[in-house]
Structure formats: structure tokens, C-alpha cells
Amino acid sequence: MTLHGMNTVRGPAITARVGRWLGICVGVCFVTGLLSHLIQHPQPWFVWPAGPVWLYRLTQGLHVATGIAAIPLLIVKLWSVWPKLFERPLFRSPLHLLERGSILVLVASMIFQTVTGLMNIAQWYAFGFYFPVVHYAMSYVLVGSVLLHIAVKIPVIRAALAQPVDYELEPGAISRRTVLHGTWLAAGVATVATVGQTVPWLSRVSVLAPRTGDGPQGLAVNRSGAEAGVLQSARAPEYRLTVTNGDASRTFTVEQLGALPQTTRRLPIACVEGWSRNAEWTGVVLGELLAAVGAAGDRDVRMVSLEPPGPYSRTVLPSRHARDDQTLIALRLNGEVLDIDHGYPCRLIAPSRPGVLQTKWLSRIEVVA
After folding, report:
1. One-character DSSP codes across 216-244
2. What positions belong to coiled-coil segments (predicted)?
3. What is the pLDDT of residue 4?
4. Is residue 22 a contact partner of residue 77, using CB atoms and an 8 Å limit?
5. What is the pLDDT of residue 270?
6. Which residues, 6+ apart, have CB-to-CB distance to 243 below 8 Å?
7. What are the two backbone dihedrals, phi and then psi, of residue 337, each rounded to the nearest 5 degrees?
8. Is the pLDDT at 125 greater than 90, yes or no?
9. What is the DSSP string of 159-222?
């Protein structure tokens, strides 16, 4: 089969069909990304449940998977309209100028989001800005440009979707249906080749998954104890975990925490980069520590790390998670004492929460007034 006749294959029939699925990917990616942002930066009206325990794992896995699937879709969509991008004159009217400008914003924001998103899941921060803030802001630019593009192009999209995919071409030419099948295959391969970092049973075929799960005690590590600067303080003999509720306060040594009733839960650790794994966590139910200082069950709780002040060294756990009996102050992971890189001497592990909010190297637990 030759490439002869490819220019006749390009056009609205391909663009509209690929664009429809690209729009779905952008929509899912935006909604799931917005959920992740609201979990990390909650608003008074926002409620995120503590169960099912795999809920955040699902939403953030969808976020990353649809973002990756969008890449081959974007490439084919750009290929299908490439000749039109260089039509002359560039601007025929003020309306045409607006249309061309919206396309420029759409393409630029889409490329920016997919490229920086890929770099983020690979933890390659070569760009000189704080990824979460910029990625979140640009998502609104992308979605706004998509909606504007659809609004301007609705008549063209409807007409294009009504065009048949099958039509007569000269012998040996690639058909529209072949291009579409190749596009769906490419999107599927890209997804399967990377989604194993979220779906463990696909890990053997996900040859391009950026995270394999390898690490201390069978779990990967985003931030080590050395990077956090806690190697000495976490292992110091004078270490104490302090639990406070107003004037009421209790302190616990590692030995005293270990002497309390221990509970084991099987919970996933799910990172914002899309990586997640199940693990067995053993420790003290958070609610029991809060009861020791007379805390009511409807109060949020602040987790304070030994790590020097930074974006996630202080986190707030909503009351619905704090009172859930699956929320632990974990001392052991998969039957072993926590590795320093996983939060020794103790860490928070709560259901349906991003890994970045599962505070490691705990020093204080404060009931929020």
C-alpha cells in the first residue's frame, strides 16, 4: 500500500471523528484533574468521600490515561488539517481572524498540557515553573478554547460527521477507515503501554509505564528521607509524636505507638502522577489517637511532618477521613517496620486520598479549631 492519495484522505470527515474522541479525552482529563485539585485545595462546598478506598486511584488513573491517549489523537487531528493551516490569505475577515486565533490557542495549550503532563508523570521537571499551579491554570485555557472552537465549528462538524468514511479511491490508496483504525490502535497501544502503573495486572505489558512499583518494601518512592532532610530527626531517640486538641495534648514514643492496639488495612497508595499500588498498612487507627485528647468526630485534623516547611509538609485531613476507621497512623508496611523513605517512624495513610497528602514522617497531629 502506498501513500499516494493521502491528501484526498485528509479533511473534515477524519478531523471531526478524531476530534470527537479527542474532545472526550480532554473533558475526562479536565474533570478528573479538577477533582484532584479540589482534594488538594478543598473549598467549603466540596465533599470528597472516604470510600470506596480506590476512588482517587480510579479518577487520577483516568486523568493520566486519557491525557496519554489524547496524544496520538492530537497528532492525527493536526495531520488531517495541516494543509489548511497554511492557506492564503491567512485572515479573510475579522471573524476568520478570531477563528484562526482560537485554533492557535487550542493547539498551543493542548501541546503544552500533554508535553508537561508527560514530563510530570516521568518526574522530569526541566521546566522552570511550579507544575501544579501552571497545569491547573492552563487547563481552563484549553477547555475554553475547545468550547469556543466547537461553538464556531458546529455546522462544519455536523456536516463532516454526515460524510461517509468509505468512498472510492484509486487502487492502493489508504482509505479514511484505515486512517481511523490506525488512530484508534495508536491510542489504545499508548494507553495499554503506560496504564500498568495504575492497573497492576497490566504492568507486564505496560512497557512504557514510567513507574514500575519497584522500591523499598515493594512501593515506589517520590520523595526520599534524604531529599526531605529528615534522616536524623526521624531516627532521633528523642522523637515524639504529639497529638493536640486545644489545651489537651498527648505525646507518644515509637514504642508507645507500637504498644497501642494495632490494625491492618489493605489500602492503595495513589499518586497524582497516576502511579498506584495496593499495600498492607499496620498501625493505630487515627480516631483512637484523637479520642485520647477528647477530639470530636466532626473536626478536621492537621498533619505536620518533620520535613521543613514546604508545599506538602503540612496537610489537612477532612473530618470524614479522620473519623473513618480505615485511616491509620501507620508504623508498618507489608509486615515490616516502615522504611525511612516511606515515612518512618510513622505516617498517615487514609482511603481515597492522593499520595502527596498521605503525610510522612509525622511529628504532630493537630485538631483544627
Report:
1. GGG---SS-HHHHT-HHHHH-TT--EEEE
2. none
3. 37
4. yes
5. 92
6. 249, 250, 251, 252, 289, 290, 292, 293, 364, 365
7. -55, 140
8. no
9. HHHHS-S-----TTPPPHHHHHHHHHHHHHHHHHTTGGGTSGGGTTT-TT-S----SGGG---S
CB 85 within 8 A of CB 77: no
CB 85 within 8 A of CB 94: no
Nine-digit cell string for 272: 497524582
Residue 283 has pLDDT above 60, yes or no: yes
What is the rounded distance in angstroms from the CA atom of residue 129 to the CA atom of residue 278? Answer: 32
- Which of 163, 146, 151 lies closest to 16 in space, CA to CA? 163
For residue 1, give the nearest of 237, 169, 128 by alpha carbon.
Answer: 169
- Across 82-107, average pLDDT: 79
Among 100, 99, 98, 105, CA closest to 142? 105
The one-character DSSP state at 354 is B
- At residue 15, the 3 state secondary structure works out as helix
As a whole number, the mean pLDDT across the chain is 90
Measured distance CA(328)–CA(349) in Å, rounded: 5
3-class DSSP state of 16 = helix
Place of cell 476568520: 96
Full-model pTM:
0.90
Q: How many CB atoms lie within 10 A of CB 249?
A: 13
Of the pLDDT bands very low, low, confident and very high (cuts 50, 70, 90), residue 158 is very high
What's the mean pLDDT in 194-205? Answer: 83
Distance CA 275, CA 210 (A): 8
Average pLDDT on 348-356 reads: 96
Q: What is the pLDDT of residue 168?
A: 56
Model confidence pLDDT, tens digit, residues 164-184: 877 655 566 678 888 899 999
Q: How many CB atoms lie within 10 A of CB 87?
A: 9
214 phi, psi to nearest 5 deg = -65, 140
Q: Give kind and range of the element (H or E) at residue 364.
A: strand 362-367
SS3 347: strand
